Amino acid sequence: MQGANRLWMSLIGVNVIVIGFVAYSAMAPGALTKTMLMPGKTSHGHYQIEMRCDVCHTEGSGIREDACLDCHAEELRRANDTHPSSKFNDPTNAELLSILDAQNCLSCHREHVDEQTLPMGLTMPSDYCYHCHQETLTTRPSHANFAFDSCATAGCHNYHDNRALYENFLNKHADEPDFLDEMVRLTRSTPTPPESKRLTKSNADAPEDWPTDETILDDWASTAHAAAGVNCGDCHSIKDKDAPKSDKNNEPRWSQSVALATCGECHQNEAETFLQGHHGMRLAQDLPAMTPGESRIAMHTDAAHRTLDCNACHSGHRFDTEYASVEACLSCHNDEHSQSFLGTSHHDAWIKELAGEAPRGSGVTCATCHMPRIEDEGGDRFVQHNQNDNLRPNEKMIREVCMNCHGLAFSIDALADSQLVKECFATAPSIHIESVDLARARFEEKQRKKEARLKKK
């Protein structure tokens, strides 16, 4: 009898553990076993945070309508969204909205339907433009022979971000050469600190009982940090931020690691944009940092377990931006596009710059294209650390990157050439997109009609 009781207690205990495990899987943020409960595969844009169901879903499993804008509102604002929901408030659009509800992100961007998800993350059929713009095939003779599902073809139209593809812009830059005479490039807003602030190894303020590595001190002393008066304690000495200011016992503690928030105290724009891209989006949702092994594109196997934080690219104490520009990327990324960079004319220009054979800033690196220098609303220049910001669709790269060196037509053709993209732009584009030609022809036709009207007067 006693043995039977023990057996029953054991079975009850096992059941409690199993139930507890399942409950944790369903409720705990970041629980790996949540993937077992998903209705389908998550898209390339969101799979890194798929374990935080609550970011997009309410407790009743419904989808929060504002969840998309929580992350993408600023991006749409910067892009001057050509199809904001407010555009469809006019009652005359009611019939169109009954066919395609353009006021709801989920009409085009649904999750967990991998079999419907197109390369750009869309789950709508590619003829969605045609529902509202059928008249274009008749009012624009130049478009008469275009396929009804080709509006969003690379280099033609972009539903949300049309900054590089609208007619006035295309016409304005129609006559640009393939290669500009001089590279146009922003420099970062990094004022030179006064010499009085510069620190040397002897100024290092690490605690006496902390092991001091001469190599680390040498690295630190050679950086912009030391030149600007940033000492060891400014990054490694941490106070409890939640403690009241009156707490005299809130003494700083020394930490060997440095949190992203600490970097963000001086590099706010860089830290904020890092959290918006695939490299940092898990941290933004209180999940463990991403590792290359969790990526869906090819990575080096020996990099699989690296933690992607600031030090992953900016090696500790040296903060070498040259290393971060190419070597850091290629030490993880092993896809065809990344590895094809080596040996291209872009890479050759970078090698010449490093060797002192070309002016500083004349080289082209992975970071040049995927982490360009941009301006915030205050006019300060910084490095965009959201490396996904201009990837899909890649026409978003035209204004901030390609046109620093190339004409608009050449840029459009290159980005629309999928094979050339794989080869990391090793040669000239082999295809031609008519966007610039059509825009110029349309403006020339308008000018002819205007001149004809003036002659009649």
UniProtKB/TrEMBL annotation:
The keyword Metal-binding applies. Residues 188-211 are annotated as: Disordered. The chain crosses the membrane at residues 7-27. InterPro entries: Cyt_c552 (IPR003321), Multihaem_cyt_sf (IPR036280), Tetrahaem_cytochrome (IPR012286). It is an enzyme of class 1 (oxidoreductase). It is found in: Cell envelope. SUPFAM superfamilies: Multiheme cytochromes. Its EC number is 1.7.2.2. The keyword Protease does not apply. Residues 46-134, 224-334 form the Tetrahaem cytochrome domain. It holds the Pfam family Cytochrom_c3_2. Keywords: Calcium, Electron transport, Heme, Iron, Membrane, Metal-binding, Oxidoreductase, Signal, Transmembrane, Transmembrane helix, Transport. Its cofactor is heme c. It catalyses: 6 Fe(III)-[cytochrome c] + NH4(+) + 2 H2O = 6 Fe(II)-[cytochrome c] + nitrite + 8 H(+). PANTHER family: CYTOCHROME C-552, CYTOCHROME C-552 RESPIRATORY NITRITE REDUCTASE. Belongs to the cytochrome c-552 family. This is nitrite reductase (cytochrome; ammonia-forming). It comes from Aporhodopirellula aestuarii.
